[in-house]
Write a structure and sequence with these properties.
The chain is an alpha+beta fold.
Length: about 260
Amino acid sequence: MRCAGVVVPAILAGVDEVQIVVAHSERATLRVGDIFLKVDSNQANLEVEVEAMALAPVPTPRILWHNPPALALAAVPGTALGVLGKPSPASPAAWAAAGAAIRQLHEAPLPPWPGRRVDDVRTRLDTECEWLITNAVLPEALVIRNREIAETALRPYTPAFTHGDLQITHVFTENEALTAIIDWSEAGQDDPLWDLATLTLGHEDRLPHLLAGYGQDVDHEVIRAWWSLRSLSAARWLLEHGFDPNTPGCEFDVLRARM
């Protein structure tokens, strides 16, 4: 079998249905039976994902094959903690189990590749805020207030092994135990509170449950700052790739909640 120039092993033969999980100009993820096929325009993303999963001390998907620019992963057991914009159906114990696993990741040895620089994050944030105001995407006062809050996150920190894109749909549990964390292409050395903020974005009521497993020695103001920063920085990308940050419970509501 061949797909967009990619040689596809016979393990995919005979499958009746292909489900598009996500697709945009940069990457696509397809579900083919019990296999997830990821195709990325940037091969470095898949290389990071493969290496990060090998290093991470938490459950990750099983790699079936890696044939650039595609990566095939086995489906993981359990269900995601939830989706952005809807209440999480997972129990407090399931959130605590996720917190304990994330703490284990953050205490693991650092991956060998470097992480983001605070100055680069600040520059991108300012660029995105200017775009939001210039194009009247959001009220200027809303952007300015959240930019002020976001500054709290832009401080010196001790880097940890982070997932980097720990969205609520990327953490799976079953019977109140963590079964897998998926999508590791943005893993690296970064602020551990970035992971905690990403997971609880739009689910602020779940932060106490997450910290019950992770541990309480975190600065809640920094997590709130990351909520603002992520929502401001991601808005343009989401809009340009067919996602709506103005959906109830999503990024724009997160920004409005800070006012």
